[in-house]
Each structure stands twice: as C-alpha cells, then as structure tokens.
Amino acid sequence: MAAVPFRVGFGEDAHRLEAGLPLVLGGVPVPDAELGAVAHSDGDAVLHAVADALLSGLALGDIGQYFPDTAAEWKGMDSRVILAKALELVRGRGYAPVNVAVVVTLDKPKLGPLRAEIAASVARLLNLPPSEVGLSFKTSEGLAPRHVQTRVTVLLGSIEG
Ligand code: C5P
Ligand code: MG
Which reaction does this enzyme catalyse, per its entry (predicted)? Predict the structure, then answer.
C-alpha cells in the first residue's frame, strides 16, 4: 500500500434496546436510560463504530474478525479494549486519528447534556483533544424507539516522517 498523508474511515453500529440493561455510549454510562443495549459485549455502539471506522480506513476488516461475538471470552467485555486494539492496528500501519465525527441516532434519553463527557471520553481513548471529536445526536422520529444506531467517519493521518 503506497503511503499517503491521509486516509478516511467509516464505521457503523446498531444495537437493539431492552429494559433492565445498561446503556453505555462512548465509554460513558447514560444515567437516565430506561432501555439498554442487547449485546455480547457491553454494547457500546459509539466505540464499536469508532473502532470499525479506524479499521476501515486501512482496509483492516472489522471488529468481528478480532473479537467474534460467538467467543465466550469476549462476553460482556469492555468496548474500550476493542477500540484500543483497533488503534494499535492502525498505529502499526503508521497512521493515527486526526479527527472523528460521530452521529448517534437514539430516541431517548436526550444525550445533549452528556456531549462534553462523551467527547472527552472518546478523545481520551483516541489520544486526541476533545475538540477533535464531533458529536451529533438525532432521534429516529419514533421510527426506531428500541434501537440505537451510530455512524462514524474518521480522518487518519500518517505518523511517519
Ligand atoms: O432528531 P432530531 O433532529 O429531532 O433531534 C433534535 C435535537 O435533539 C438534535 O439536534 C439533538 O441536539 C437533540 N438530541 C439529543 N439526544 C438524542 C436525540 C436528539 O440531544 N438522543
Ligand atoms: Mg455493537
């Protein structure tokens, strides 16, 4: 692969929501969530999409290849481990994230009050300043009330020379 100064990545994730489960987004537990993510891991749809975006920028596949959701050892796992692995693979190829743009579609609760906390958490995990983490929150307008969906673009910059 010829070295280019920048590469773009895109990731997506969705989880079904059910009562009585925790909702964690970007490493931050959402305090007022009546519904939480049904998942093999902790179901953090933001970190899963960020990790896939990182991998996609270098055509390294997706997180399911590194953390199969059939493997008992990954049950209930902290998604920060998944993100750390994706980051390590990207760095191993000589790139690091420059900025990320995250769109979360969730009807309830409102995430606006958590924007700074989620941005700080994602930024910390990516070793970026919070100013490089853009967060947009959208409802599904009632079309998918038991569903969380996340889409992420990332710009990767060469860290060589
Ligand atoms: O989806 P919609 O455009 O109706 O969302 C209106 C606004 O509500 C968004 O621009 C966002 O600021 C906020 N929002 C939020 N948390 C959500 C969904 C939307 O803070 N879960
Ligand atoms: Mg997921």
Answer: 4-CDP-2-C-methyl-D-erythritol 2-phosphate = 2-C-methyl-D-erythritol 2,4-cyclic diphosphate + CMP
Q: Residue 130: is the preceding peptide bond cis (ω within 30°)?
A: no
Statement: residue 2 has pLDDT above 70? no
- CATH code, domain with 58: 3.30.1330.50
Is residue 1 one of the residues assigned to a domain?
Answer: no
Measured by CA distance, the residue closest to atom 7 of ligand 1 is: 138
Is pTM beyond 0.85 here? yes
Which tops the pLDDT comparison, 1 or 122?
122
Ligand nearest to the CA of residue 51, numbered in listed order: 2
Domain that holds residue 102: 6-158
- Count structural domains, the chain: 1
CA distance 125 to 127: 6
As to burial, measured by CB atoms within 10 angstroms (0-12 exposed, 13-18 middle, 19+ buried), residue 113 is exposed
Q: What mean pLDDT value characterizes the chain? A: 95
64 belongs to a structural domain: yes
State which ligand 1 atom lies nearest to the alpha carbon of 112.
20
Mutational test site, ligand 1, from 46, 102, 103, 137, max ligand atoms within 8 Å of CB:
137
With bands split at pLDDT 50, 70 and 90, how would you rate the model's confidence at 1?
A: low
